[in-house]
Amino acid sequence: MPDYDVVRVFCAPNGGYGNELGVVRDGSVLPDPEDRQRCAAKLGFSETVFVDDPERGVIDIYTPTLRLPFAGHPCVGTAWLLDVPELVTPAGVVGARQDGEFSWIEARAEWAPPRTLRRYATVAEVEGLAVPPPGDWEYAWAWEDEAAGRVRARAFPGRDDGIDEDEATGAAALLLTEQLGRALNITQGAGSQILTAPQPEDWVEIGGRVFLDR
To answer: Are residues 193 and 13 in contact, defined by beta-carbon separation less than 8 angstroms?
Structure first.
C-alpha cells in the first residue's frame, strides 16, 4: 500500500463532517491503472486521487470500482493539498483558487458523470429517505430556503461497493447549479457544506472547507 494523505472536503463551519478523500501524492509508485483501481478499492474512500505531476496538478481519480475523468470533491481537496492554480484531469483543466477558509475549483457541468437529480417537496422528506437499492446515481434535494439559495441534499451512488451514501459530492452540486442557474449553499449528508456559483461561458465554481486528517 502506498503512502497517502486523508483530507475531509466540504466540511461544516465548525470543521466537522466533510467527505474523506485519499490522496496518493506520488502516483509513480502505482503507475498501472489496474493497480490503482485495486488500491482505491482497498482504501474504501468514495474517491482516491493519484497525483502524477504535483507541480502541474496532473491527477487520476478512482472510486472503489470506477476510474473517473472528473469529480468535484477530489478536485477541491487535491487542489487545496497541493496548493496549485489548476488541476489537469482527463475531462479538462480545472481552475483552482484559495479564498480564506474556502477552497474553490472551476469546472463544467458536461464533465460530471450522469446523475439523477430528484427534487422533493420538503427537507423532512430528504432527511427521511432510506438508502435505495443499487441502480441510478441519485441526488435527492429540497429547498431549505429558496430565496436564499439554501438546499438540503443527500447523495446515493447506487453502486454495490460499500458506499451507500456520499457525504458530499461536488459533481452533483455542479449539475444542480447548472440546472437551477443560480448560486447555491448546500447542506449535504450529515452536515457537510458545499457552495457553488455560476460563472460566464457555462463554468461553475464549487467551494468548501478542507481539513487534513492524516
So the answer is: yes
